[in-house]
């Protein structure tokens, strides 16, 4: 199924984890990411219960994005959408149909360093 312009009506920003050994961690020891850019996608939401925290279930959002196939998007990317960060749990690619399906989970307490892509 090819996607029409009307179906891909949400803009998401995606960042990929830095793989350069010299630059892959920030000063806080957390992995660094570089912006890949803005992408058009469609989304479908689910609510979930992450885990028992202090005797109460902690809720989180799970979202499924569908978009055009982009080979640089993988499980090591994070997504910025509606003011929240999401980690990618699963990526289903279909290059022949020019589509990708991403299952992502809200990052409850993001401690993420994102930089602009390096020139090198």
The biggest beta sheet is recorded as: 6 strands, antiparallel, barrel
Biggest sheet: strands side by side, in what order?
A: 1-2-3-6-5-4
Write down the overall geometry: globular
Low-pLDDT runs of 5+ residues are 1-5
State the helix count. Answer: 0
User: What share of residues are in beta strands?
Assistant: over 45%
Give the N-terminus to C-terminus distance in angstroms: 37 Å
Query: What order do the SSEs take from the amino end to the carboxyl end, as H and E?
Result: EEEEEEE
Q: Kindly state the mean pLDDT as a whole number?
A: 79
Number of strands: 7
Question: CATH first level: which class?
Answer: Mainly Beta
Summarize the amount of helix as a percent range: under 10%
In short:
The chain has no helices and seven strands. The protein has strands spanning 10-17, 32-53, 56-67, 77-81, 84-94, 99-106, 113-115.
Characteristic key phrases:
Thrombin, subunit H, globular, single chain, disordered N terminus, mainly beta
Describe what you observe in this structure.
It is built from no helices and seven strands. It is mainly beta and 120 residues long. The protein has a single domain (10-115), classed as Thrombin, subunit H, CATH 2.40.10. Strand 2 and strand 3 form a beta hairpin. Mean pLDDT is 79; it is low at 1-5.
What order do the helices and strands come in, and which of them pair?
Layout: E1 10-17, E2 32-53, E3 56-67, E4 77-81, E5 84-94, E6 99-106, E7 113-115
Parallel strand pairs: 2-7
Antiparallel strand pairs: 1-2, 1-4, 2-3, 3-6, 4-5, 5-6
């Amino acid at each position: 199924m090819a996607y029409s312009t009307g179906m891909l009506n949400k803009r998401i920003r995606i960042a990929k984890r830095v793989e350069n050994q010299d630059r892959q961690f920030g000063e806080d020891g957390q992995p660094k990411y570089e912006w890949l850019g803005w992408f058009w996608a469609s989304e479908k939401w689910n609510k979930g219960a992450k885990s028992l925290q202090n005797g109460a279930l902690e809720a989180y959002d799970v979202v499924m994005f569908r978009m055009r196939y982009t080979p640089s998007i993988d499980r090591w990317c994070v997504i910025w959408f509606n003011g929240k960060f999401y980690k990618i749990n699963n990526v289903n690619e279909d290059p022949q149909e020019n589509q990708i399906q991403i299952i992502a989970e809200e990052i409850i307490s993001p401690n993420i360093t994102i930089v602009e892509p390096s020139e090198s």
